[in-house]
């Protein structure tokens, strides 16, 4: 069995997908991983809209790509659109009292759970924050008051070779306070 460290070392953003549909069962397994993610006061402030038919995927791609960004999404067979929900009264009160944005943190955690589960299943993902939210909400018939926080492209990667990760040296990202 692969270790967690091996899984996170292998996971990377995928921008080239095979022309192959992702099985519903695999997407549901990714959503189950997100469901199990921790959240402030167990508020679970997320809802996932799954787009997995080619025609609708192309329309979603039109809302995500432009002249310089996300052109690769045209080739993507599925998307998971991450919609922010209000959460519960306890977490919302905590956000006000502590001046913290717990919902965004929680959504980030659940999104990474999706991506790690997808990687384990042999799927590639890319977390996208660049999109036309107004057009995407209209396409998906979302209430204007809802917020789309992220979109995840998901599919079978064209290339499974792990690229060299360019990261800060570990000594640059921590400090022991003794």
TrEMBL record:
What one GO molecular function would you report for this record? oxidoreductase activity
Q: Specify whether Hydrolase is a keyword of the entry.
A: no
- Top-level taxon of origin: Bacteria
Q: What is its EC number?
A: 1.-.-.-
Among Pfam families, the record links this protein to: Nitroreductase, TM1586_NiRdase
Domain Nitroreductase: start-end pairs: 9-70
Keywords for this protein: Oxidoreductase
Domain Putative nitroreductase TM1586, residue spans? 99-174
The record's listing under SUPFAM superfamilies reads: FMN-dependent nitroreductase-like (SSF55469)
Family membership:
Belongs to the nitroreductase family.
In Swiss-Prot or TrEMBL terms, this protein is called Nitroreductase
Its ancestry begins with: Bacteria, Bacillati, Bacillota, Clostridia, Eubacteriales
